[in-house]
């Protein structure tokens, strides 16, 4: 099943309202998406897969508002209990999630993968997230992250 269908199925299973919409894959990256479709960057989220540097490899997913920067070196390493971490490579991310760069979303992640959401995401009535691939975005309530088992973290991003 394509990643977009897995994401939609995961959202259906949560039983929450959501609004999926198809986009031109050339405009999947946040800045291009916001400019093309008229959404403010502070209402869009990026989900980033972080990997520990040392073996055994550990991973987590972090969702932050697009204008904010994920605090990998201090906050995420502490949450993961590791000394060093960085963004997962595109190959690692795809192998782990089955999703495409530009479409990673918290929904349909592998079981047991920790999901952390920056507390500022929760300040909005709705946000736009990736839909698993470069052709789908989804408008959701931030409470959906909590329904999906996310841990809301103060200061996850700067």
Task: Provide the fold topology.
Elements (H helix, E strand, L loop, with lengths): L2 H12 L3 E5 L7 H8 L7 E8 L6 E7 L6 H9 L4 E3 L2 H8 L17 E4 L8 E4 L5 E5 L2 H5 L3 E3 L5
Parallel strand pairs: 3-5, 5-8
Antiparallel strand pairs: 1-7, 2-3, 2-4, 6-7
In short:
The chain has a single domain (3-141), classed as YbaK/aminoacyl-tRNA synthetase-associated domain (YbaK protein). 27% of the residues lie in helices and 25% in strands. It has helices at 3-14, 30-37, 72-80, 90-97, 143-147, and strands at residues 18-22, 45-52, 59-65, 85-87, 115-118, 127-130, 136-140, 151-153.
Descriptive notes:
The protein has about 160 residues and is α/β, with parallel strands linked by helices. The chain has a single domain (about 5-140), classed as YbaK/aminoacyl-tRNA synthetase-associated domain (YbaK protein, Alpha-Beta Complex), CATH 3.90.960. Helix content is about 25%, strand content about 25%. The strands form two sheets. It has a five-stranded mixed sheet. Strands 1-7-6 form a three-stranded antiparallel sheet, covered by helices on one side. Strand 6 (about 125-130) and strand 7 (about 135-140) form a beta hairpin. The mean pLDDT is about 95.
**In CATH, what is the homologous superfamily?**
YbaK/aminoacyl-tRNA synthetase-associated domain
Protein structure class = alpha/beta
Shape: globular
What is the CATH fold-level name?
Answer: YbaK protein
| Uncertain stretches of 5 or more adjacent residues | none
Question: In this structure, how is the largest beta sheet organized?
Answer: 5 strands, mixed
